[in-house]
Amino acid sequence: xxxxxxxxxxxxxxxxxxxxxxxxxxxxxxxxxxxxxxxxxxxxxxxxxxxxxxxxxxxxxxxxxxxxxxxxxxxxxxxxxxxxxxxxxxxxxxxxxxxxxxxxxxxxxxxxxxxxxxxxxxxxxxxxxxxxxxxxxxxxxxxxxxxxxxxxxxxxxxxxxxxxxxxxxxxxxxxxxxxxxxxxxxxxxxxxxxxxxxxxxxxxxxxxxxxxxxxxxxxxxxxxxxxxxxxxxxxxxxxxxxxxxxxxxxxxxxxxxxxxxxxxxxxxxxxxxxxxxxxxxxxxxxxxxxxxxxxxxxxxxxxxxxxxxxxxxxxxxxxxxxxxxxxxxxxxxxxxxxxxxxxxxxxxxxxxxxxxxxxxxxxxxxxxxxxxxxxxxxxxxxxxxxxxxxxxxxxxxxxxxxxxxxxxxxxxxxxxxxxxxxxxxxxxxxxxxxxxxxxxxxxxxxxxxxxxxxxxxxxxxxxxxxxxxxxxxxxxxxxxxxxxxxxxxxxxxxxxxxxxxxxxxxxxxxxxxxxxxxxxxxxxxxxxxxxxxxxxxxxxxxxxxxxxxxxxxxxxxxxxxxxxxxxxxxxxxxxxxxxxxxxxxxxxxxxxxxxxx
Length: 597
Prior knowledge:
There is one protein chain. It is built from 21 helices and 10 strands. By secondary structure, the chain is an alpha/beta fold. The protein folds into 3 domains: about 325 residues, ABC transporter transmembrane region fold; about 130 residues, P-loop containing nucleotide triphosphate hydrolases (Rossmann fold); about 70 residues, P-loop containing nucleotide triphosphate hydrolases (Rossmann fold), CATH 3.40.50. The strands form 2 sheets. A 6-stranded mixed β-sheet has the order 6-7-8-3-9-10. A 4-stranded antiparallel β-sheet has the order 2-1-4-5, with no helix packed on it. α2 runs antiparallel to α4, α3 runs antiparallel to α12 and α6 packs across α9. The longest helix is centred in the middle third of the chain and has 53 residues. The chain is elongated, with a radius of gyration of 36 Å. The relative contact order is 0.08.
C-alpha cells in the first residue's frame, strides 16, 4: 500500500510546479484521445476495404477499396505523427518541471543542512550529506512521476479506451478486467520487499562513498602510517557489499517483472481465444476484434507502465527516507528571537553571564556542570584546563553552536535564546581550532564573514594577524587561489588567515579557540602584540593549552571535568598552587626539555 502521509515534506516542492502539472494533464488527455483513435484505421482496412462491408452513404470513388486502403494508411500516419508530437512535448515539459523539483528539493536540503547543529554533522560524514543532496534529491522526480504524472496519464488512457472497448464488446472488456486482482496481489507482495532491497542497496553505496571521501581527504595520514593496503582492502570489501546488494535488488526486480509479464500474457491469450470465438459466432467483426486487441495491447502497456512506475517508486522511497532524515531532523538551534542583540547598533562589548549552565553531547555523560561565570564588558578571559575538560565547548555556547541542557547565557541582561540568531552571531568573531579555508582566493577567504570589505581593510587585517608577509610572497598575492581546505599552505599560515578573517569582522565579542596552536613562538609573540590593540574594548575569550599565551589575561578560568575549579589572574592562581600552577610547572619543564634537545 502507498502511504501518502510520508510524502508530506516534499509536497510543497511538487505543488510549486502546479501550472506545469496542469499543462501536462491537458497533454495527457490529448494523448489518450489519440491513442483511442489509433486502432480505428485497422478496422477501416479489415472490415470495409478488405471485408466488403458498406461504409454508410459513401459511394463512388470514396467507397472503392483502394481509396479506403489509402485513407486507412494516411490516417495511421497522421495519428502517429500527432501521437509523437504530443509524446515529445510531454516528455520535454516533464523533464523541465521534474528537474525544477529536484533543484528546489536540493535547495531545501542544502538550507536545512546549514541550519542543523554541529551534533548532526558529527554523526553524518560529509560524503553521506553530499549523497543526500545530489543523488537522493532525485527521488522527488521519480515520486512525482510515480504518483502523479504516470498514473494520471495511464488512468486517463484506461478510462477513454475502456469506454470505447465497452461499446465494442462488454464481455471481452470484463474478461480483461479479471487481470486486475492478480496484478494487485503481485504489487502488494513485491512492494515492501522492493523498497527494503532498494534501501539496503542505497545504504551500501553510501558507505562506499563515505569511506572513499574520508580516505581521499586523509591521504597524507594514510601514507604516513602505511594504511594504503588496509584502505584498499576495506574499499574492496565495501564495494563488494554494494555489488551484492545491487545484485539482490536486481534479482527481485526481475522476479517482479516476470510474474507480471506472465500474468499479462496469459490474460491476452484468454481474451484472444474468447474474441476469436465471438467472431466465429458473428457477435463482432474481425475489424472490431483487431481494434479490441489493439486496445488490449495498449492497456497491457499502460498496466506494465504502472507496475514499472510502482517498482521505481519503491526504489525512490529508499532515497526519500534519507532525504526525510535531513528534512525532518530536529533543528536544535532554533531561532525564536525577534529582537537584535544590539538594537541600537552601538556595537559595544557586552557583559556575558553564564547562569548554571550544564551541557552533554550524550545523555548521562555531562561535559559541563553548573557553570556560573560573569565576563565583564571589555574583559579578556582565558579558559584553560586539561584536554576534554569542556573549555572549547563552553566558548562554543556563546554563538549558540550547541544548545545547552539547562541554565541561561546572557548578553547584558538578555537571554541570547530570545534574540535573533543572525544578530547574535554578527556580534561574535570566532577563530576555531581547525582553520577552515575554502578553495577561493586568499582575499575572499579573509573577507568571508565581511564580503563588502575593501582591499585596504583586508590587507590591514592580514597585517594585524602577521599574515601579510607570506601572502606577498605568493605568486598572485591576495588573489592566489587556495587548494582544498588550504592544502597549499602550512598550518601556521592557515591559522593566520583564519585570525585575519576574525579580525576583519570587527565584532564586539572575540573568541579565540587555540588561536596560536599552529604558530611558532616568534610569530605567536608578534601576533599577540598586534592582537592586544585589537582586543581593546572587546569582550575576549581565549581558549588555550599553551599557557604562556594567556598570562596577561584579565582573568583566567580553570575548568576541570566540566566544572570551574579556579579563577583569578596569573599571579593569584600561582599563589593558590592548585591545578593551574601544576599545569604551568609541567609546561615549563616540557619547554625546557625541548630547548635542551
